[in-house]
Design a protein that fits this description.
The complex is a heterodimer. By secondary structure, chain A is mostly helical. Chain A is 82% helix and 1% strand. Chain B is mostly helical. Chain B has a domain at 211-397. Chain B has a two-stranded antiparallel sheet. The radius of gyration of chain B is 23 Å and the shape is globular. The chains are: A mainly alpha, B mainly alpha. Bound molecules: CIS-heme D hydroxychlorin gamma-spirolactone and protoporphyrin IX containing FE (HEM) (2 copies). One protoporphyrin IX containing FE binds at residues 8, 11-12, 15-16, 18-19, 80, 83, 142-143, 145-146, 149, 372-373, 376-377, 379-380, 383, 390 of chain B.
């Protein structure tokens, strides 16, 4: 049962990365909006994010709530070791969400629009970076090591060695950069589908290809650094039975995505990009299974009592039954409105 | 500032900020739906305008509510890992259910905002009703978690660790009913009067403005009954506290000594060193009567528990006085509104009533902050009453003053901006006269 729930957490994280990740990526492209169609680019991004970002954001809440309900020990461990990056991520989330809302629903005058756009964009760059850093830190095993040291009573250890070095290393920063590149790639690929105009589509096609190059570079860096900084994940990724098929699949998805962009098969590119990003996430999870926080917590040894897990599954099932149709309805409503380009006026 | 104090202060700032938006997210959809229903029934376009504007305001506040709530769910771990490690499996359930309620609220708010001309009238109203219901459900669930902290149940304590965990029993504790009832009424009373106050203010300047007249009435429909019921619900809460958390009651009332036929103290300043409450107006037997419905009942004072288990008495006492004082005033204004409405007089033309509504406008929110201070500070030094001390729950990371200052600064900044945006939204309201065929250009 605990394993089922851990898999659900992974699915939720995957959904967050695919949906909210693209929203963050949209913010990145808002930041880098250049050229003669700058304004159109920003408008397209805002239209695509629209009212859906709050619904997307819920996936993160689901991950957090699931962790503290079903794996309370692992949750509190992560919160202790990653206090600083998680706080920074929160600041990013707060600024980004509120800036977006202020821009969409607040004054339509030019100056505040630009100011909020700026905040929105900067926060959109910060948050994925830190999210990547946190994942990198968990994968590297240093978070778990730090918790074990703390349990043994590491009173003499310095603040930096306990609360900074576990998450601040070349490897974690490479993973952070990779997360940023991936989100930007996702967003640009999605936006080629959303755009109505050929010229705008070309803008995002170029951006998607650049981002793909960045993904390649950062992923390569992370892989190299993993050998020395995250030996367990590195070993899992290279040695285990499923490593080869997984690598092949991920690589294939990446190649298909880039080829499809090249050949302007927008829909195919979108599917392939999403598959690529998901496979990377599952690859990480598989490489560190059965650990949640290696080497301190496994799925089994940090799980809540069975009664809690059982109830949680029930709640999840009933909730999904009620909410999935509703969210499908919202997407349908919004996307069918977006096509006519009238969603923005509609809310006034 | 010590680390525990910094963590507590950060929690207090985050919650005190979040609750403002949460409360609006609970009550505003009700106003919105009433306005829309009136538009559908009467065809009066001004109500449509009102529903749309309120929906827009709700959307801004909802976004801030969502992000500040996200901060809280992380902070439970960031600040109180010891608490979460102990309690996660026991009270994770209501938080999970709150997640679903929030999700539903976000989805249907989206449908509401973007569905004006895209879905049928009935579907649109239904979406609004679902937004309102899920807002109330959010509050219900999260307050259940808090009720558990006040009256922990649903587990056995063996060697300091919980066993026999029963999350359902943990949701149905003695504090659950009084707290949930009081919180929901508080949301409707506070929001209803805050909105009524804003429109009342505009009506004092422009009494014939048809837009503000309609807004005032809808807001009072929601705010008035809740404000009148709130003292009754507060009495239920107080009797719960008297039975289950005697030290909190003693701190609320400034009751240092255990005594039969204890007096009700109004105002006053507790002097902890001298163990007495000075300058209070005392009503003989009042406390025994209110708390136990028996003038001779024995009220346990702070002397019944060891000194190290005392909550900070002055803070709790003063916060309680503020809530009860302002809550009573709010109820009085509510009764006045109810009488005026019953007599079918023109509310907007009654300048004294309008002035009272304007003055009452912030009171509900002040009561909410004060009330939570009573509940939370009054529970100290426990984070889980009688089970875990706050100091044992805090994160081992030193230097907690830094995140406290950071989060506080961030929230100050956001608070100013939200206030300014709302001001802007209100000031751009239409100038419309009764009988105008259309709404004037200022509405656009
Ligand atoms: C509009 C807001 C509002 C108003 C008018 C009142 N309250 Fe209140 N009160 C709250 C808003 C609130 C609150 C912020 O919502 C609290 C915090 C926890 C809770 O459940 O409700 C609260 C808590 C709270 C508690 C503590 C419960 C606990 O610790 O579990 C008591 C005893 C009262 N209230 C009593 C009263 C009385 C006797 C009132 C008489 C006028 C009153 N309240 C008016
Ligand atoms: C009594 C206190 C509280 C009430 C009444 C309350 C109510 C609400 C409401 C109505 C919302 C919906 C957002 C909105 O309408 O603006 C909300 C959002 C939220 N609340 Fe609270 N809340 C309270 C305290 C807390 C606490 C203590 C936590 C965390 C531990 C929390 C976590 C959240 C989260 C995470 C969200 C956003 C959900 C999301 O983004 O998915 N709330 N809350
Ligand atoms: C939204 C309404 C709430 C407000 C305004 C509020 C207010 C506060 C305040 C003022 C403190 C600091 C106590 C002190 O300084 O002595 C505090 C602490 C805390 N509150 Fe609440 N609270 C709210 C609801 C909740 C809920 C629903 C939970 C749910 C679990 C919760 C959990 C905590 C925790 C864990 C602490 C830290 C430990 C402590 O100091 O007791 N609070 N809150």
């Amino acid at each position: 049962m605990a394993t089922t729930i851990a898999l659900i957490a992974l699915v939720a994280l995957n959904a967050y990365v695919l949906l909210a990740g693209a929203d963050f990526g949209g913010g990145v492209w808002d930041f880098f909006a250049t050229g003669p169609r700058r304004t159109e680019q920003r408008a397209l991004i805002a239209d695509a994010i629209g009212p859906i970002w709050e619904a997307n954001h819920v996936w993160l809440i689901l991950v957090v709530v699931l962790l503290f309900t079903c794996f309370p020990a692992a949750f509190s461990g992560l919160a202790i070791a990653l206090h600083i990056p998680l706080t920074l991520m929160l600041v990013g989330i707060v600024l980004r969400g509120s800036a977006f809302a202020f821009r969409s629903y607040g004054s339509t005058a030019d100056a505040p629009q630009r100011r909020w756009g700026r905040v929105f964009a900067i926060a959109s760059v910060l948050t994925p970076l830190v999210l990547g850093v946190c994942i990198g830190a968990i994968a590297s095993g240093r978070v778990g090591d730090m918790l074990e040291r703390l349990d043994r009573g590491a009173a003499e250890a310095s603040f930096v060695s306990l609360y900074v070095s576990p998450w601040c290393s070349p490897f974690t920063i490479a993973v952070g950069a990779m997360a940023l590149a991936l989100f930007a790639f996702l967003a640009a690929t999605y936006l080629t589908v959303e755009a109505d105009e050929a010229a705008l589509r070309e803008d995002f096609r170029r951006r998607a290809l650049w981002a793909a190059a960045a993904v390649f570079v950062t992923a390569f860096l992370a892989l190299i650094l993993a050998r020395s900084h995250a030996p367990r994940v590195s070993a899992g990724l290279i040695a285990s039975v499923w490593a080869l098929p997984l690598h092949v699949l991920t690589g294939a998805a990446a190649v298909v995505a880039i080829a499809a962009l090249w050949a302007r098969h927008w829909h195919l590119a979108r599917v392939a990009a999403a598959a690529q990003v998901s496979l990377i996430l599952w690859g990480w999870a598989a490489a560190q299974a059965p650990y949640l926080v290696p080497p301190a917590f496994t799925v089994a040894n940090s799980a809540a009592p069975p009664r809690t897990l059982e109830l949680f599954l029930w709640a999840l099932g009933v909730g999904a039954l009620l909410l999935f149709p509703s969210i499908a309805y919202l997407f349908w409503l919004f996307k069918s409105a977006g096509r006519n380009g009238s969603a923005a006026q509609e809310s006034d | 500032m010590g680390d525990v104090l910094a963590a507590r202060s950060q929690m207090a700032v985050s919650l005190g900020f979040h609750i403002l938006f949460a409360v609006v997210g609970i009550a505003m959809p009700v106003l919105m739906v009433i306005a829309e229903a009136r538009w559908r029934r009467t065809g009066d376009a001004m109500y449509l305008e009102l529903a749309k504007r309120w929906a827009k305001g709700t959307a801004i506040l909802f976004a801030v509510g969502a992000v500040s709530g996200t901060v809280l769910s992380f902070e439970l771990g960031l600040l109180w890992p010891g608490f979460m490690r102990f309690a996660g499996a026991i009270i994770g359930m209501p938080f999970s259910l709150e997640g679903f309620a929030f999700f539903a609220e976000a989805i249907f708010l989206g449908v509401y905002l973007y569905g004006w001309s895209r879905i049928s009238a009935r579907a649109h109203i239904a979406a609004g009703v679902l937004v309102a219901l899920s807002g109330a459900a959010s509050a219900l669930f999260v307050v259940l978690a808090n009720a558990w902290m006040n009256s922990p149940a649903g587990f056995q304590l063996v060697n300091g660790a919980p066993t026999d965990v029963d999350p359902v029993a943990a949701m149905l504790t003695p504090a659950a009913f009084p707290e949930v009832l009081h919180m929901l009424l508080a949301a409707y009373a506070a929001t209803g009067f805050a909105v009524a106050g804003i429109h009342g203010f505009m009506l004092l300047r422009d009494q014939r403005n048809a837009f503000h007249r309609r807004a005032l009435v809808v807001a009072l429909i929601v705010g008035t009954p809740a404000a009148i019921l709130q003292p009754l619900s507060g009495d239920i809460s107080a009797r719960y506290v008297a039975q289950w958390q005697p030290p909190k009651l003693a701190a609320m009332e400034g009751q240092f000594r255990t005594e039969a036929g204890a007096p009700l103290r109004i105002g006053g300043v507790p002097d902890v060193a001298a163990q007495r409450t000075r300058w209070a107006f005392e009503i003989p037997h009042g406390l025994s009567l209110l708390a136990f419905h028996d003038p001779q009942a024995v009220v346990r004072g702070l002397d019944a528990v060891p000194r190290r288990d005392w909550p900070p008495v002055p803070v709790v006492h003063i916060a309680f006085q503020v809530m009860v004082g302002l809550g009573t005033l709010l109820a009085v204004v509510g009764i006045w509104v109810a009488i005026a409405a019953w007599r079918r007089t023109d509310l907007a033309a009654n300048r004294w009533l309008m002035r009272a509504v304007v003055v009452a406008s912030p009171m509900g929110f002040v009561c909410i902050e004060a009330g939570w201070t009573v509940t939370e500070v009054g529970r100290q030094p426990w984070v889980i009453y009688g089970v875990m001390r706050t100091a044992d729950a805090v994160t081992p990371m030193p230097g907690l003053i830094v995140p406290f200052v950071l989060i506080s600064a961030l929230y100050c900044f956001l608070g100013v901006i939200v206030a300014w945006l709302l001001y802007d939204l209100v000031m751009r309201s239409p100038i419309a006269r009764e009988g105008d065929a259309t709404i004037s250009p200022a509405a656009a």
